[in-house]
Amino acid sequence: MELVFLGTSSAIPTSHRNHSSIALKAFGEIFLFDCGEGTQLQMSKAKISPMKINNIFITHFHGDHILGLPGIIQSMAFRGRKNPLHIFGPKGLVEMVNIIRNFGYFSLTFEIYMHEIEDGIIIEAENYRISCSKMNHTVLNFAYSIYEKRRPKFIKEKAIALGINPGPDFGKLQRGIAVKVGDNIIHPEQVLGEERKGRKIVYSGDTTPSDQMLEFAKDADLLVHESTFEGKYGDEAGEMGHSTSVQAAEIAKKANVKRLILTHVSTRYKKSDILETEAREIFENSTVAEDFMQIEVER
Amino acid sequence: MELVFLGTSSAIPTSHRNHSSIALKAFGEIFLFDCGEGTQLQMSKAKISPMKINNIFITHFHGDHILGLPGIIQSMAFRGRKNPLHIFGPKGLVEMVNIIRNFGYFSLTFEIYMHEIEDGIIIEAENYRISCSKMNHTVLNFAYSIYEKRRPKFIKEKAIALGINPGPDFGKLQRGIAVKVGDNIIHPEQVLGEERKGRKIVYSGDTTPSDQMLEFAKDADLLVHESTFEGKYGDEAGEMGHSTSVQAAEIAKKANVKRLILTHVSTRYKKSDILETEAREIFENSTVAEDFMQIEVER
Question: pTM of the full predicted structure?
Answer without folding.
Answer: 0.90
